[in-house]
Amino acid sequence: MKMKKFIALLTVAGMTATMAVGCGSSSNETSDNAADTNTESSDSSLSGTITAAGSSALKPLADDAADSFLNDHPDVSITIDAGGSGEGLKQVSEGTVDIGNSDVAAEDKLDETAAKELVDHQVCVVTMAPIVNKDVAEAGVKSLTKEQLISIFTGKTTNWKDVGGPDEDIVLVTRPESSGTRATFQKYALDGNEEASNTSMETDDSGVLLTNVKSTNGAIGYVALSYLTGDAGVETVAIDDVEPTLENTYSGKYPVWTFEHMYTKGEPNEVTKAFLDYITGDEYGAQMEKLGYGVASKMTVTEH
Amino acid sequence: MYCVFRENSEQQYISLIKGENMKKQNMFTKEYAWRGLMTAGGLLVIAITICIGAFLIYKGSGTFTIFGHSIFEFLGSTDWNPEDNAQGGGTVGALIFIVGSLCTCGLALLIATPFAVGSAIFMIEIAPKFGEKFYRPIVEIFAGIPSVVYGWVGLTVLIPAIKKVFHLQVGHSVLAAGIVLALMIFPTISNVAADSIHSVPKDYRMAAYGLGSTRWQSIYKVVIPAAGSGILSGIILGLARAFGEALAVAMVIGQTTALPKGLFSTTKSLTTEIAAQMGNATEGGEMKTALWTMALLLFLLSLLFILLIHYFSRPKKDKE
Fold first, then answer.
1. Residue A159 contacts by C-beta under 8 Å, 6 or more apart in sequence?
2. Which listed residue, A182, B91, B255, B263, has the most CB atoms within 10 A of its CB?
3. Rounded to whole angstroms, how far apart are CA atoms B109 and B114?
4. Block means of pLDDT (10 residues each) for chain A, length 304 residues?
5. pTM, two decimal places
6. Which parts of the chain span the membrane according to its record (chain A) (predicted)?
7. Nearest chain B CA: its distance from A240 CA (Å)
């Protein structure tokens, strides 16, 4: 009995200790950072904190950019949260964070007066591509016209043989209504036509969507190019014979893309500005393209 | 109370004067300190529950008060298209999700209950020693597996299996969700049912045997009716768990905004829709408010389940 009690106590003590250590070390770090900031404030090098929140589509890029930015400026600390475009816009408008990441323009989510206070920084271009299961592509569906695409996603065409594919039901795999990816795809690939949500399988994030398209015969869905950098196991489909690539996006031939926005309330402060300049700069641009995002300054068209 | 307190303190005063050790004083403060701590703990739990309820009512009522939808639209319409902004003007019919939840949970109960009650009878009546030593701990491990593991296993094993067995293109279905949920609630039902079967007095069985019944007759004519209310509580507890499960269901249900047409069609449930949309919906918008209303509905349902459990497990005087 005593032994049992002892073991139980030990377990609890262990867990508490782990918690304490976990919390302790992080608080130590922050205090170290604070100390650094204080001692080196006389130095000309950049220091301070940047907080950002919003779009989950933009977060991987923002994280990567923050990592390499911190290599050059070790005294800066950057915190980036996801939470959705709406949340990012709301928080930056309230002044809770320095940067609000968003897939959509501020006017779409906020009321006019709040949107006017925000300054838009277009940091990159995200291109969305329709993707299909390999069996569809192998059967010869390499390109779809816009009409075919609309007909498929609105649920009018339900068999692949109608668009030159195998005799197989079309399985729609999409994103929830509040998703920024879905909004972009609907606006530019489907010309604003509403997706048939009563026949499509919605997935909570693009990674799951990719898995579902990969494992379901006859499936079609859409993701941002940043999800297709490695061997994703799915095939992209050209729209009107234009392949979904960054080059075609830059030249304006491929229509399904959107600017990713980083909003600040008023003009950004020194540290935030340095970060925004870095992420939009040429040096980081190459890395950005490697991750599957388009460089905003390379765009030859700015309107669809 | 006051008197007692006076007496106590007087005694202590006296004992202090007498130079007795401090032990008595210590015991006195300890008694009240611990009692205070326990009371505070109890009150805190009550306060938190009430706060969550009040918060959900405050957030969830917005659909009806701010955006002016009727409660019948919310509960009875399949037209789900709320606007993601504070102006509103969309539709908030949540019937699809309610039906989706009911179908998957009902199916889960249908699958799980016979096995769960059977296994409870097995571990208490048929093989008590083996049941107590090996079987029960195994079932308890079952109960401790996190839902994400169930969902993941379902996604990688069950979905392809359904595709293969029924020759379907898509394996995600109400059936898959029902099976995953059944696996999840099986240990809950089984454990509670086993407890209630265990608490049936031995005299009952002895009396049954004395009247010449076989083991099976004594089990299903005497023991199960006597343990009936407990078994029912277990089933409702399982149902409550199934209703609240989001993650595992989301992975296998296929998430289509349409009423399920059969076992193999994809649909959505209350919890999966909340989980899918809450991340991107704007705070204070019509969609987020409608999601809060769905959360409120889940809260009320679980309240109902708890009340049912209390109703069924209340002591029955006429039987004693």
1. A167, A168, A169, A170
2. B255
3. 9
4. 68 66 45 40 67 85 91 90 82 91 84 87 91 91 92 92 90 86 90 87 85 91 89 90 92 91 91 92 89 88 78
5. 0.78
6. none
7. 28
- Contact call for B279 and A216, based on CB within 8 A: no
CB atoms within 10 A of CB A107: 14
| Closest of B49, B63, B198, B217 to residue B121, by C-alpha | B198
Give the tokens for residue A83. 């939470």
The ipTM estimated for the assembled molecules is 0.70
Whether A203 maps to a domain, the answer reads yes
Task: Give yes or no: residues A174 and A223 share one domain.
Answer: yes
Q: Is residue A12 part of a domain?
A: no
Burial of A42 (0-12, 13-18, 19+ CB in 10 A): exposed
Phi, psi for B274 (deg, rounded to 5): -60, -50
What domain range includes position B42?
2-59
HEC readout, B72-121? HHHHHCCCEECCCCCCCCCEECCHHHHHHHHHHHHHHHHHHHHHHHHHHH
The tally of CA atoms less than 13 A away on the side-chain side of residue B230 is 20
Distance in angstroms (rounded) separating the CA atoms of residues B97 and A199: 15
Which residues in chain A are closer than 8 Å to B85, comparing Cβ atoms?
109
In this structure, the answer to whether residues A173 and A235 fall within a common structural domain is yes
Pairing of strands A48-54, A99-102: parallel
- How would you classify the pairing of strands A201-202 and A171-174? parallel
Provide the CATH number for the domain around residue A229: 3.40.190.10
- Closest partner CB to B276 (pick from A171, A199, A202): A202
In a domain, B236, yes or no: yes
Number of structural domains, chain B? 2
Q: Do B276 and A56 touch (CB under 8 A)?
A: no
- The two three-digit tokens of residue B300, written as one number: 């009320």
Assess if residue A228 is contained within a domain.
Answer: yes
- Are residues A196 and A279 part of one domain? no
Cα separation, B174 vs B104, whole angstroms: 6
Q: Which two tokens stand for residue B132?
A: 């107590």
Question: A154 to chain B, minimum CA–CA distance in Å?
Answer: 14
Dist. CA A240–CA A238, nearest whole Å: 6
> Which residues span the domain enclosing A191?
125-249
Q: How many domains does chain A have?
A: 2
Which residues partner with A78 through β-bridges? A50
Token pair belonging to A228:
């297709």
